[in-house]
Automatic annotation (TrEMBL):
This is DegV family protein. SUPFAM superfamilies: DAK1/DegV-like. Keywords: Lipid-binding. Pfam families: DegV (PF02645). PROSITE patterns: DEGV. It comes from Amedibacillus dolichus.
Length: 281
């Protein structure tokens, strides 16, 4: 008998409730902390609230859902499903992944399958769509998990408009932010194997965007990947750069929006160029 499987992500996947419902994907909402007060993304705080807090230069951080919240979500889904297939935020960026793997092993063996994830932002949804297709073709949850862990690949370049949010969140020092601002330095951050590191630092925004496109398109066949550009309330520039990325790859480029959880770390105006290797099944 075919098993009924619930596809689950957390809200770092940058997906709205409406789109999640349309796709048949469930979302575990993550806590967001603004000036020391905790909210639940998509429940008690929303994208427009995060934008307002960023513009007011408030300190914004995020934290992982508690083990109790994770277990409650799984229990809720298991009332109507035989299994839960959970693709959380990258293990390099959050403890949610490791905590969930341990919880599933200890208390939900065979019922909850957790991917040891290297994904973040909307690429999580790409992988869940592929998971659904594989399940419909007869793959088991365990086989889908193995394929994503072995073959799934995300590479992206993030270009913050400024360093204010990184400074306010404590990810760089005020002195370093001030010096970078004075020298008009634009950092390029790479997302690779689930972690984030500095790729380059340049003196103009236009050069940063050009190098960002060069980085994601270098030494690969664009036909092997799906492509996206993501922005944080910077739509006009995003549209211009999307055209450039499409010209560079010869491939369609999906346009997405950074939502509360990721935007609270990257800041308003951030642009991200990303590629996701397509799985063959």
């Amino acid at each position: 008998m075919e098993k009924k499987v619930a596809l689950l992500c957390d809200s770092s996947a940058d997906i709205s409730e409406e789109e999640a419902r349309e796709l048949g994907i469930y979302v575990l909402r993550m806590p967001v902390i603004v000036d020391g007060k905790e909210y639940l993304e998509g429940v008690s705080i929303f994208d427009e609230d995060i934008l307002a807090a960023l513009r007011a230069q408030k300190k914004i951080t995020t934290t992982q859902p508690s083990i109790g919240e994770i277990a409650r979500k799984w229990d809720e889904l298991l009332k109507d499903h035989d299994q839960v297939f959970y693709l959380p935020l990258s293990r390099e960026l959050s403890g949610t992944c490791a905590s969930s793997i341990n919880l599933a092993k200890e208390q939900y063996a065979g019922k909850v399958i957790v991917v040891d994830s290297t994904f973040v932002c909307y690429p999580v949804i790409y992988m869940l769509k592929a998971a659904r297709d594989m399940l419909e073709k007869g793959y088991t949850c365990e086989q889908v998990k193995e394929k994503i862990e072995k073959e799934g690949d995300l590479y992206a370049i993030l270009i913050p408009e400024n360093l204010t949010t990184l400074k306010n969140g404590g990810r760089i020092s005020p002195a370093a932010a001030a010096l970078a601002g004075m020298l008009k330095i634009h950092p390029l951050l790479k997302v690779e194997r689930g972690g984030i590191d500095v790729q380059d630092k340049v003196r103009t925004a236009q050069r940063a965007y050009k190098i960002g496109i060069d980085c994601v398109t270098r030494d690969i066949d664009p036909q092997d990947y799906d492509w996206m550009i993501i922005h944080a309330d910077n739509e006009q520039l995003c549209d211009e750069l999307r055209t450039q990325l499409q010209e560079a790859t010869g491939r369609p480029v999906d346009k997405r929006v950074f939502r509360s959880v990721i935007m609270s770390h990257t800041g308003e105006g951030t642009i991200g160029f990303g590629r996701i290797r397509r799985l063959h099944y």
